[in-house]
Design brief:
The protein is 39% helix and 26% strand. By secondary structure, it is α/β, with parallel strands linked by helices. 42% of the residues are buried.
Length: 234
Protein backbone atom coordinates (compact mmCIF):
# COMPACT_ATOMS: atom_id res chain seq x y z
CA UNK A 1 0.00 0.00 0.00
CA UNK A 2 2.46 2.67 1.22
CA UNK A 3 6.11 2.51 0.24
CA UNK A 4 9.01 4.84 1.00
CA UNK A 5 12.13 4.19 -1.03
CA UNK A 6 15.40 5.98 -0.09
CA UNK A 7 13.57 9.10 1.10
CA UNK A 8 15.67 12.08 2.19
CA UNK A 9 14.61 15.29 3.91
CA UNK A 10 16.78 18.35 4.55
CA UNK A 11 16.05 21.39 6.72
CA UNK A 12 18.64 23.77 5.34
CA UNK A 13 21.99 22.18 6.14
CA UNK A 14 20.44 19.59 8.47
CA UNK A 15 20.02 16.15 6.89
CA UNK A 16 16.95 14.97 8.84
CA UNK A 17 16.08 11.77 6.93
CA UNK A 18 18.78 9.69 5.27
CA UNK A 19 17.61 7.15 2.66
CA UNK A 20 14.57 6.04 4.65
CA UNK A 21 12.88 2.95 3.20
CA UNK A 22 9.80 1.36 4.72
CA UNK A 23 6.55 -0.29 3.70
CA UNK A 24 3.10 -0.42 5.23
CA UNK A 25 0.86 -3.15 3.83
CA UNK A 26 -2.90 -2.82 3.62
CA UNK A 27 -4.58 -3.64 6.93
CA UNK A 28 -1.44 -3.40 9.06
CA UNK A 29 -0.45 -1.37 12.07
CA UNK A 30 3.20 -0.45 11.58
CA UNK A 31 5.00 1.50 14.28
CA UNK A 32 8.04 3.76 13.94
CA UNK A 33 9.89 4.17 17.22
CA UNK A 34 12.88 6.27 18.16
CA UNK A 35 14.16 8.98 20.46
CA UNK A 36 13.26 12.69 20.27
CA UNK A 37 14.74 14.23 17.13
CA UNK A 38 15.34 10.86 15.44
CA UNK A 39 13.18 11.76 12.42
CA UNK A 40 9.84 10.17 13.26
CA UNK A 41 7.68 13.25 12.70
CA UNK A 42 9.69 14.22 9.61
CA UNK A 43 8.87 10.80 8.14
CA UNK A 44 5.13 11.30 8.67
CA UNK A 45 5.27 14.87 7.34
CA UNK A 46 7.12 13.69 4.23
CA UNK A 47 4.33 11.17 3.59
CA UNK A 48 1.53 13.71 4.12
CA UNK A 49 3.32 16.42 2.12
CA UNK A 50 3.89 18.84 4.98
CA UNK A 51 7.64 18.76 4.32
CA UNK A 52 9.37 18.40 0.97
CA UNK A 53 11.58 15.45 0.20
CA UNK A 54 15.04 16.04 -1.23
CA UNK A 55 15.38 12.56 -2.68
CA UNK A 56 13.69 9.18 -2.97
CA UNK A 57 10.08 8.25 -3.70
CA UNK A 58 6.85 7.86 -1.73
CA UNK A 59 4.08 5.81 -3.32
CA UNK A 60 0.54 4.96 -2.20
CA UNK A 61 -1.17 2.12 -4.07
CA UNK A 62 1.46 2.52 -6.79
CA UNK A 63 0.87 6.27 -7.24
CA UNK A 64 3.87 8.50 -6.57
CA UNK A 65 3.06 11.23 -4.04
CA UNK A 66 6.24 13.34 -4.13
CA UNK A 67 4.92 16.06 -6.44
CA UNK A 68 1.34 16.00 -5.13
CA UNK A 69 0.34 18.83 -2.77
CA UNK A 70 -0.65 17.96 0.81
CA UNK A 71 -4.41 18.69 0.40
CA UNK A 72 -4.59 16.40 -2.63
CA UNK A 73 -2.86 13.64 -0.68
CA UNK A 74 -5.78 13.78 1.76
CA UNK A 75 -8.07 13.18 -1.22
CA UNK A 76 -5.97 10.13 -2.14
CA UNK A 77 -6.45 8.65 1.32
CA UNK A 78 -3.62 10.00 3.51
CA UNK A 79 -4.68 11.52 6.83
CA UNK A 80 -2.31 12.70 9.57
CA UNK A 81 -3.09 13.26 13.26
CA UNK A 82 -0.34 15.66 14.34
CA UNK A 83 1.67 15.57 17.54
CA UNK A 84 -0.07 17.79 20.09
CA UNK A 85 -3.45 17.15 18.44
CA UNK A 86 -3.86 20.66 16.92
CA UNK A 87 -7.63 20.86 17.05
CA UNK A 88 -9.19 24.19 16.07
CA UNK A 89 -9.70 25.57 19.61
CA UNK A 90 -12.29 28.27 18.90
CA UNK A 91 -14.43 25.97 16.75
CA UNK A 92 -16.95 23.52 18.18
CA UNK A 93 -16.43 19.77 18.25
CA UNK A 94 -18.94 19.46 15.41
CA UNK A 95 -17.17 22.11 13.30
CA UNK A 96 -13.81 20.37 13.84
CA UNK A 97 -15.28 17.11 12.58
CA UNK A 98 -16.82 18.86 9.58
CA UNK A 99 -13.36 20.24 8.73
CA UNK A 100 -12.14 16.64 8.48
CA UNK A 101 -14.58 16.10 5.62
CA UNK A 102 -13.80 19.36 3.81
CA UNK A 103 -12.84 17.61 0.54
CA UNK A 104 -15.93 15.42 0.47
CA UNK A 105 -19.23 16.18 -1.30
CA UNK A 106 -21.26 13.08 -0.30
CA UNK A 107 -23.44 14.72 2.34
CA UNK A 108 -25.43 11.63 3.32
CA UNK A 109 -22.24 9.60 3.80
CA UNK A 110 -20.63 12.45 5.77
CA UNK A 111 -23.64 12.41 8.09
CA UNK A 112 -23.29 8.65 8.48
CA UNK A 113 -19.57 8.97 9.27
CA UNK A 114 -20.33 11.72 11.81
CA UNK A 115 -22.74 9.36 13.57
CA UNK A 116 -20.06 6.65 13.54
CA UNK A 117 -17.57 9.05 15.17
CA UNK A 118 -20.08 9.91 17.91
CA UNK A 119 -20.74 6.20 18.40
CA UNK A 120 -17.01 5.49 18.74
CA UNK A 121 -16.39 8.56 20.93
CA UNK A 122 -19.61 9.15 22.93
CA UNK A 123 -18.05 12.06 24.86
CA UNK A 124 -17.73 13.98 21.57
CA UNK A 125 -21.41 13.48 20.88
CA UNK A 126 -22.23 14.88 24.30
CA UNK A 127 -20.00 17.91 23.69
CA UNK A 128 -20.63 18.50 20.00
CA UNK A 129 -21.45 22.20 20.55
CA UNK A 130 -18.57 22.81 22.97
CA UNK A 131 -15.44 24.72 21.86
CA UNK A 132 -12.64 22.24 21.15
CA UNK A 133 -10.14 24.30 23.15
CA UNK A 134 -12.11 23.63 26.35
CA UNK A 135 -11.83 19.84 26.07
CA UNK A 136 -9.37 17.82 28.15
CA UNK A 137 -6.20 16.45 26.51
CA UNK A 138 -7.73 13.00 26.10
CA UNK A 139 -10.91 14.42 24.61
CA UNK A 140 -8.89 16.55 22.19
CA UNK A 141 -6.97 13.43 21.10
CA UNK A 142 -10.26 11.67 20.45
CA UNK A 143 -11.46 14.69 18.48
CA UNK A 144 -8.26 14.75 16.41
CA UNK A 145 -8.75 11.05 15.64
CA UNK A 146 -12.43 11.56 14.79
CA UNK A 147 -11.58 14.51 12.55
CA UNK A 148 -9.02 12.41 10.66
CA UNK A 149 -11.51 9.56 10.22
CA UNK A 150 -14.00 11.97 8.64
CA UNK A 151 -11.78 12.07 5.54
CA UNK A 152 -12.23 8.29 5.15
CA UNK A 153 -8.48 7.63 5.02
CA UNK A 154 -6.85 4.60 3.48
CA UNK A 155 -3.92 5.16 5.82
CA UNK A 156 -3.88 7.01 9.12
CA UNK A 157 -0.61 8.63 10.24
CA UNK A 158 -0.60 8.94 14.03
CA UNK A 159 2.04 11.13 15.67
CA UNK A 160 2.56 10.55 19.43
CA UNK A 161 -1.11 9.95 20.33
CA UNK A 162 -0.26 9.16 23.97
CA UNK A 163 1.73 12.35 24.61
CA UNK A 164 0.69 14.14 27.80
CA UNK A 165 -2.09 11.70 28.66
CA UNK A 166 -2.66 9.86 31.95
CA UNK A 167 -1.86 6.11 31.88
CA UNK A 168 -5.53 5.05 31.91
CA UNK A 169 -6.26 7.33 28.95
CA UNK A 170 -3.20 6.02 27.10
CA UNK A 171 -4.61 2.50 27.36
CA UNK A 172 -7.99 3.70 26.09
CA UNK A 173 -6.43 5.55 23.13
CA UNK A 174 -4.44 2.46 22.12
CA UNK A 175 -7.58 0.32 22.35
CA UNK A 176 -9.28 2.80 20.02
CA UNK A 177 -6.35 2.68 17.57
CA UNK A 178 -6.59 -1.11 17.50
CA UNK A 179 -10.36 -0.96 16.94
CA UNK A 180 -9.97 1.54 14.06
CA UNK A 181 -7.47 -0.82 12.44
CA UNK A 182 -9.73 -3.84 12.92
CA UNK A 183 -12.44 -1.99 11.02
CA UNK A 184 -10.19 -1.70 7.98
CA UNK A 185 -7.99 1.40 8.33
CA UNK A 186 -4.24 0.91 7.82
CA UNK A 187 -2.12 2.73 10.41
CA UNK A 188 1.43 4.07 10.61
CA UNK A 189 2.04 4.91 14.26
CA UNK A 190 4.82 7.12 15.62
CA UNK A 191 5.10 6.75 19.37
CA UNK A 192 7.63 7.24 22.18
CA UNK A 193 5.74 4.75 24.34
CA UNK A 194 7.49 1.91 22.54
CA UNK A 195 6.06 -0.84 24.74
CA UNK A 196 2.44 0.13 23.99
CA UNK A 197 3.15 0.71 20.30
CA UNK A 198 4.88 -2.64 19.84
CA UNK A 199 2.09 -4.42 21.73
CA UNK A 200 -0.52 -3.49 19.09
CA UNK A 201 1.64 -3.33 15.93
CA UNK A 202 2.18 -5.99 13.29
CA UNK A 203 5.60 -4.72 12.31
CA UNK A 204 8.06 -2.10 13.55
CA UNK A 205 10.90 0.11 12.40
CA UNK A 206 13.47 1.74 14.69
CA UNK A 207 14.88 5.08 13.57
CA UNK A 208 18.03 6.76 14.93
CA UNK A 209 19.38 10.11 13.71
CA UNK A 210 17.41 9.90 10.47
CA UNK A 211 18.31 6.31 9.60
CA UNK A 212 16.36 3.06 9.95
CA UNK A 213 18.56 0.82 12.10
CA UNK A 214 16.21 -2.10 12.76
CA UNK A 215 12.98 -3.53 11.35
CA UNK A 216 10.91 -6.66 11.68
CA UNK A 217 7.84 -8.22 13.25
CA UNK A 218 6.80 -6.15 16.27
CA UNK A 219 7.26 -9.00 18.74
CA UNK A 220 10.74 -9.73 17.37
CA UNK A 221 11.73 -6.06 17.64
CA UNK A 222 10.43 -6.04 21.22
CA UNK A 223 12.82 -8.88 22.08
CA UNK A 224 15.86 -7.06 20.63
CA UNK A 225 18.45 -6.31 23.34
CA UNK A 226 19.17 -2.86 21.89
CA UNK A 227 15.45 -1.97 21.83
CA UNK A 228 14.95 -3.27 25.36
CA UNK A 229 17.86 -1.18 26.59
CA UNK A 230 16.99 2.02 24.72
CA UNK A 231 13.19 2.07 24.75
CA UNK A 232 11.74 -0.54 27.09
CA UNK A 233 13.59 0.19 30.31
CA UNK A 234 15.60 -3.03 30.23
Amino acid sequence: MLELNNVNVHYGMIHALKDISLTVNSGEIVTLIGANGAGKTSTLCAISGLVKTSGGTITLDGKELNKIAAPKRVGLGVSQIPEGRHVFPAMSVLENLEMGAYLRKDKSEIKKDMENVFERFPILGQRRKQAAGTLSGGEQQMLAMGRALMSRPKILLLDEPSMGLAPLLVKEIFNIIKAINEQGTTILLVEQNAKMALSIANRAYVIETGTIVLSGEAQEVMQSDSVKKAYLGG
